[in-house]
Request: fold
Amino acid sequence: QVQLVESGGGMVQPGGARRLSCAASGFTFSNFMMSWVRQAPGKGPEWVSGISLSGTNIYYADSVKGRFTIFRDNAKNTLYLQMNSLKPEEPALYYCVSDFAGRGPRGQGTQVTVSS
Reply:
């Protein structure tokens, strides 16, 4: 059974940074492309970033390109999202997904709040 547990959310000031983690279990993590998706209150899900099996190929939504970095540690079965220069309009529930498109099994998410 796929289990994904996100952590690292919290409150950050505009322009600040935050690193999210996603601990995976119940499946062979290294055999799956992974992604991060976020959902702001009252809005639909937004795909943020995706990463290939080995981490060699990485893709970002235009809205986060240059500020966010996705990476993975297959030895630790963990996916990460380093978020820098967070904007006031980016508070959302961030969750990881066990596929590239962001439509597969997902975790419960971790809330990121951007406020001064």
User: Anything to note?
Assistant: The mean pLDDT is 95. The longest strand covers residues 18-25. The CA atoms of residues 91 and 113 lie 5 Å apart. The two ends are 40 Å apart (CA to CA).
